[in-house]
Specification:
32% helix, five-stranded antiparallel sheet, 3 helices, alpha+beta, Alpha-D-Glucose-1,6-Bisphosphate, Chain A, domain 4
Length: 136
């Protein structure tokens, strides 16, 4: 969370999670816009940069106004899922409301990443080849 004398208070949320699957597998989880409404039901997202297996960048409207990004970085035998959110809360939120919103958004980002990790890895450990016919 950052503030300035002349600018509205902004949420700056950053999260990184390693998934033991290739970037293409993680990218597929974000490719369908229906997944966006499941992950971020109170936000209206519009893609402004589709980088394929490297991720997506969106403009954000709704409960927040700003930008959001999922960057998928190939690392070792998997992917680091980088999540960035920079947005303001509409209106004039109090410092307490900003702290609560920042905490809620940070927890939600990690929950999404851990849900994807659980689902996409399907029990695969880093360094262990994927099972035949399995994810990754």
């Amino acid at each position: 969370m950052s503030t300035s004398q002349n600018a509205p208070a902004a949420l700056d949320i950053v999260d990184e999670t390693f998934l033991a699957v290739p970037p293409s597998t993680v990218a597929a989880a974000f490719a369908d816009p229906r997944s966006w409404t499941r992950y971020w039901p109170d936000l209206v997202l519009e893609v402004y940069t589709d980088r394929g297996e490297a991720g997506l960048r969106w403009t954000v409207r709704g409960a927040l106004v700003g930008t959001m990004e999922v960057w998928l970085e190939p690392v070792l035998d998997g992917t680091v899922l980088h999540y960035f959110l920079r947005a303001v809360l509409p209106g004039s939120p109090s410092p307490r409301e900003l702290r609560r919103a920042a905490d809620r958004r940070a927890r939600a980002a990690k929950a999404i990443a851990l849900e994807l990790k659980e689902t996409l890895e399907d029990g695969r450990e880093p360094g262990v080849p994927p099972r035949a016919g399995g994810a990754g």
